[in-house]
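To the wet lab folks,

You asked to see what we're planning to order before we commit. Fair enough. Below is the target structure as tokens, and below that is the sequence we designed to fit it. If anything looks off to you, flag it before the synthesis order goes out.
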């Protein structure tokens, strides 16, 4: 009988102890949960309040970015970008040319290890104009006759391979690769493509500066990389700049994609 009472008392005491432990742990768990909820809420608030990257921060050429915080560079970039908007050009010709030319240009640049952004050079050079420049440059990549011959193109009274997209792109890739061996910067390569490597080297030495965006160059060369970046931006994000959606542009191109490709 005494044994039964002892067992009963033991059970009751055990239950009381467990109830106390449970009662103590509940607020601690609630407190911990509350902390987690607060942290999650705080993290969500931070994410929601994070500012999206500005357009200037997203712009680049061959992965070389604009120097952010430079008001002069930003003003110039915005001005040249605006010049390529649909409001100013009032034509979708550049997008149609891109759809036609890029499938030929891209694999050639890749084969020579040239950044894909150089595919915008022909759009800047000859996308809105055709024929021979006053200085004698011609074709998709606007080669001068001497430079064209140096990189393997036939230019004579009977044939002008500067007008052949595939062959002239191979020549351009060879030239661009050679320029990179000199300048070790794709923005400087683009500038040298525009003005000539000799002139570009002299400017780098004279100014003791090899950052394209910080150099003082003639008007055309000083704006050349900005034009390439602008071309890249309107082709990759046409709607933002007032153009029609890419699918519609490709439909316009229809079956004539090979029309000027030999």
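Sequence we intend to order:
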């Amino acid at each position: 009988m005494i044994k039964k009472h002892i067992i009963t008392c033991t059970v009751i005491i055990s239950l009381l102890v467990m109830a106390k432990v449970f009662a103590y742990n509940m607020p601690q768990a609630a407190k911990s949960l509350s902390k987690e909820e607060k942290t999650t809420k705080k993290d969500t608030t931070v994410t929601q309040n994070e500012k999206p990257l500005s357009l200037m921060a997203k712009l680049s050429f061959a992965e070389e970015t604009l120097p952010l915080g430079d008001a002069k560079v930003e003003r110039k970039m915005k001005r040249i970008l605006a010049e390529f908007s649909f409001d100013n050009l009032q034509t979708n010709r550049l997008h149609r040319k891109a759809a036609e030319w890029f499938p030929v240009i891209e694999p050639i640049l890749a084969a020579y290890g040239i950044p894909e952004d150089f595919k915008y050079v022909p759009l800047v050079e000859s996308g809105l104009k055709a024929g021979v420049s006053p200085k004698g440059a011609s074709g998709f990549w606007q080669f001068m006759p001497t430079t064209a011959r140096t990189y393997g193109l036939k230019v004579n009274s009977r044939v002008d391979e500067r007008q052949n997209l595939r062959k002239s792109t191979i020549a351009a890739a060879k030239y661009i690769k050679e320029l990179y061996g000199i300048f070790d910067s794709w923005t400087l390569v683009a500038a040298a493509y525009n003005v000539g490597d000799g002139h570009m080297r002299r400017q780098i030495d004279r100014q003791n500066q090899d950052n394209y965006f910080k150099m003082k160059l003639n008007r055309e060369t000083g704006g050349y990389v900005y034009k390439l970046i602008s071309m890249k931006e309107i082709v990759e994000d046409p709607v933002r700049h007032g153009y029609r959606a890419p699918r519609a542009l490709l439909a316009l191109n229809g079956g004539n994609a090979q029309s000027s490709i030999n």
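Structural context that might help your review: Residues 29-33, 35-48, 255-262 have pLDDT under 50 and may be disordered. Residues 1-50 form one domain.

Thanks,
Computational group
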